[in-house]
Amino acid sequence: MQRTWRRDEKAFYEHRAYMLELEALTPYGPWSIPEYVVMCESGGDWGAVNSSSGATGAYQLLPSTYYGVCTSCDWSHIDQDRAARIVWLRSGGSEWACA
């Protein structure tokens, strides 16, 4: 009998596979930028919102920055990881006050 995947199960396993791939590619453990920056910026809260600047997510990216590197993204964990990694590779820590 073939297994049918529920949408949330599929998303979980896709995210897990992506995170394992990311950990193999970056020295930052479960984050796509240095962990100390993430913890300083958001405490690792994927849904964090800075009411004064509008920065959002675990990486506290401005929407303009986020959509500038990830045009069809939906603020999922995977998309946040990808966007933050692209920004970090392009400009290092200059986008983060805590870097």
What do you see in this structure?
With 99 residues, this protein is mainly alpha-helical. The chain has one domain (7-95). It has helices at residues 7-25, 35-41, 63-69, 77-91. Helix 3 packs across helix 4. The longest helix has 19 residues, at 7-25. The relative contact order is 0.16.
Strand runs, count: 0
Q: How far from one another are the termini?
A: 51 Å
User: What Rg is obtained from the alpha carbons, in whole angstroms?
Assistant: 14 Å
Mean pLDDT value: 83
Q: Regions with pLDDT < 50 over 5+ consecutive residues?
A: none
| Fraction in helix | 40-55%
Strand fraction equals under 5%
Order of helices and strands: HHHH
Largest β sheet strand count, sense and barrel closure: none
Category from helices, strands and their pairing:
mainly alpha
Any idea what the shape is?
globular
Total of DSSP H or I helical runs spanning 4+ residues: 4
Total separate domains: 1
List keywords for this structure.
4 helices, 99 residues, 0% strand, mainly alpha
